[in-house]
Amino acid sequence: MNWGAVAAMGAAGTCVGAGTAKLLNWAGAAVPVPAVVVGTGVAWAGVTAVAPGNLTPIALAALAVPLVAADLRHRRLPDVLTLPAYPLVVAVAPDPARALGAAAVFGGLHLLVHVAAPRAMGAGDVKLAGALGAALGSVSWLALPAAAVLAAVVTAGLAATRLWRDGVPHGPGLLAATTALTLLRVPP
């Protein structure tokens, strides 16, 4: 393990965390800046230590920490981070065509759930799901249903805490499942 690279990526992650926290504040979804800064730095260092050279989970960590914080606090996944996620994730995907196809499938299925039961899944979850589908597509097609199941388990765990009266945030489950699966790199 290259500890210099781990430390450098951790430092770079703190800078990214500061930037994303500022963007969320600007978008009206303020998050605890120290937690996002430190969390993103630790995530980048951890991903570099566990999966050196795998850019997909690095890109996800740049989004996951601030978006989880925003969704847990505000039950919102602001466009200021969900929309730029598409080109970011596709740009680091080993197979951009498969990433785009997986984005359409995963995002489309979440859109169907949103249309059928709007209170069960918000529009931010749908927008995020497409970008996460692109990341999952870089792993394998089987990562799509696996992520859906894992995300549902995390969301059920959050629901069990009964902290939210107006519905449970689904973004943390989507982000945790996708990040875990991209770190595992299950073969296609």
UniProtKB/TrEMBL annotation:
Keyword Methyltransferase assigned: yes
Protein name per its UniProtKB record: Leader peptidase (Prepilin peptidase)/N-methyltransferase
TM region positions: 41-65, 99-117, 129-160
One GO term (biological process): methylation
InterPro entries reported in the protein's UniProt record: Prepilin_IV_endopep_pep (IPR000045), Prepilin_peptidase/N-MTase (IPR050882)
E.C. code: 2.1.1.-, 3.4.23.43
One Gene Ontology term of the molecular function aspect: aspartic-type endopeptidase activity
Domain Prepilin type IV endopeptidase peptidase: 59-156
Coiled-coil intervals: none
Domain of life: Bacteria
UniProt similarity note: Belongs to the peptidase A24 family.
Pfam families per UniProt: Peptidase_A24
Annotated keywords: Hydrolase, Membrane, Methyltransferase, Transferase, Transmembrane, Transmembrane helix
